[in-house]
Amino acid sequence: MKKPADIAKFLKDRGLRVSLQKLEIARHVLGVHRHFTAEEIFKEVNAEFTRVSRATVFNVLNLFVEHGLLKTVRARSDVLLYDSNTEEHDHVVIAETGKIFDVQLPEKEKQSLLKSVWAKNPHLPKRATASVVVHV
Ligand SMILES: [Zn+2]
């Protein structure tokens, strides 16, 4: 969903107000697969378009998360990342650059990895949808 008309319809269908800012932010984050911070989107949007505040960028990204268009990823401790791939998947993070890649670990191996971590650390929360982040 990258076309402004599709995004406008999506917003309207959910009773959300359509604004130029929302459409512009959507153009940067939807329909292309990427991981990003709110700050990166703030800079991109303002580099080529009318001024959009940090608060608006943050609010619109969170609105998109709320409506399942994006999800958040806790793959780095320094920043909150947003992910335009909303399917269940795992990540590999390059330690030096913080660059993040999607990977699909085989479910059986992933569950066995998580089980061994939980067995050694019983205090950790056990979530059915835990994802794995590998730092290299
Ligand atoms: Zn991802």
From TrEMBL:
Keywords: Iron, Metal-binding. Fe cation binds at residues 90, 109. Its cofactor is Mn(2+); Fe(2+). The keyword Protein transport does not apply. Binds 1 Mn(2+) or Fe(2+) ion per subunit. This is Ferric uptake regulator, Fur family. CDD domains: Fur_like. It comes from the Bacteria. GO terms for biological process: negative regulation of DNA-templated transcription; regulation of secondary metabolite biosynthetic process. The lineage of its organism: Bacteria, Pseudomonadati, Spirochaetota, Spirochaetia, Leptospirales. One of its GO terms (molecular function) is zinc ion binding. InterPro entries: FUR, WH-like_DNA-bd_sf, WH_DNA-bd_sf.
